[in-house]
Amino acid sequence: MFDFHIHLARLPHPKQLTQLLYNGDYGFIAIACEPWEWESTANLKKEFSTENKPFKTSYGIHPMIATQVSDADFERLKEYLQADRSASVGECGLDKRYPGYGENGVQEAIFKRQIELAKALGRDLQIHCVGDYGRVVTLLKAAHYPPLLQPANPEPRPVFHRFGGDAGIVRAALPMGAIFSLHADSFKKKSTRATIPLIPEQNIRFETDADETTFAADGRSASNGDAPEYNVEEVIQALKERWLAVKILWENLKV
Ligand SMILES: [Zn+2]
Fold it and tell me: How far, in Å, from the CA of 207 to the mean position of ligand 1?
């Protein structure tokens, strides 16, 4: 199992959880999409990463906070990315539910800066899109991302996280070497569900996108507000079930 998009630092018992996942059979890319999460995720990596097992991370600015970030935040982001040579950039992108979504708006500006960063550093780009996938593809093309292959990191690729686009987007993004990371929600929209079988298997990944809301949503909230009711084994079990459920949805579409 390899979870292509998980917010480890936002989950209950993050340290214990990371250690158990890391020593077990559950690989992951730990996504950090705002400044506090960069720090927590980098600390988890520092504590648990070993030389023979790379701890994969991604640092970026989510469109939900696009209107709140400063140049100083960008400098810090760059520092995290330069310090962690295997890290991806993101998640970043466009989201119609948050301010600054309009054409040429703040979300675009913040996304473009991160595309340029991924291009300059030769990194994968974890893309978040709730809204216009066509605009995302246009912005990638305008920025000439992905760049030509670089010996240090031969495969900078756009990763469409929690993919929800249609056939036109798949056709436009496949020549870029795009990865389509599927989430249970990817199978909810009819046009996306119809499109998923068109994606070659080597371009498919699976993710939980698990974060603090994953374990708050089912009503088992913490009894006293400071101790999550889920123990770490239950969290791991829930992650594995969620990840497997996505894979099974995908397998059922293939037949
Ligand atoms: Zn995410």
Answer: 10
Q: What pairs with residue 3 in β-bridges?
A: 28, 206
- Spell out the domains of the chain, with CATH numbers in brackets: 2-254 (3.20.20.140)
19: phi > 0 → left, psi -120 to 50 → alpha, else beta; which? Answer: alpha
pLDDT tens for 100-112 read: 999 999 999 999 9
The pTM of the full predicted model, rounded to 2 decimals, is: 0.93
Q: How far from 79 is each of 82, 89, 106, 112, CA to CA, in Å? A: 5, 12, 22, 18
Q: Which structure tokens are listed for 184?
A: 């249970």
Which H or E run includes 5? Answer: strand 2-6
Q: Which residues of the chain have pLDDT under 70?
A: 149-154, 217-228, 255
Question: What distance in angstroms lies between residue 223's CA and the mean position of ligand 1's atoms?
Answer: 26
Q: What are the residue ranges of helices labelled H in the chain?
A: 14-23, 35-48, 71-83, 106-121, 133-142, 167-173, 190-195, 232-254
One-letter amino acid at 176 equals M
